Amino acid sequence: MTTEQTARIAQRLAEVRQRIRDAELAHGREAGSVQLLAVSKRQPVEAIRAALAEGQHAFGENYLQEGAEKRAALAGEAIEWHFIGALQSNKTRAVAEGFDWVHTIDRLKIARRLSEQRPSEAAPLQCCLQVNVSGEASKAGVEPGQAPALAMQIADLPNLQLRGLMTLPEAVTDFESQRDAFRKLRTLQAQLVADGLALDTLSMGMSNDLEAAVAEGATMVRLGTAVFGPRPEKKP
Ligand SMILES: *Cc1c(COP(=O)(O)O)cnc(C)c1O
Prior knowledge:
CATH topology: TIM Barrel
Largest sheet: 8 strands, parallel
Number of helices: 9
Distance between the termini: 12 Å
Strand content: 15-25%
CATH class: Alpha Beta
CATH architecture: Alpha-Beta Barrel
Shape: globular
Bound molecules: pyridoxal-5'-phosphate
Low-confidence stretches: none
Helix content: 40-55%
Radius of gyration: 17 Å
């Protein structure tokens, strides 16, 4: 990575932090209430180092092999690793052993395996339940109607800590439609809190819709391109 590329990441990160701050202000959110998760999938280790040097410590990865390589290369750095990719039940061990957070739980079977496989010396795995708010058949995530029962069961698992909900809605460009999807997640979260679950996380909003997500109560936005620029076609 050239010094110019490193400088560009520092610059993008500053711009993104300003965008988040502006959105908080515009939508009556407390300053600093929205956390940035830098999505580093398909970006090289040096890109993560460049963001780390600017004080970014939470990184999201989608692929297990790539994530393992990066964690090994960055061992000893103060990084909080978030798994945000598709979860298959035969791949849960790598998540349970290597990550601090997972955002993409949508079935009890997966949650049980993660809890069983979480090393006893580690802190509980911090979890979000992925909800399919736009009802697209192709999208992962539990149906909103089934989310409360599943959330209750996950909250009972010993080595997981259910922190909240996550969604990856249908990509739409107009602000009000973006808000509609995020509002569904916020409403569902409020219902679960009223049911007695202690949830504090709404993982929603990406590079193209972070303002709408912040307007609807996001506490964690997952930004890839806005931080690192376009993703390389192939994994590094
Ligand atoms: C890739 C990805 C992101 C980041 O997307 P950008 O549009 O690059 O900000 C966020 N969340 C998930 C689940 C992703 O897979």
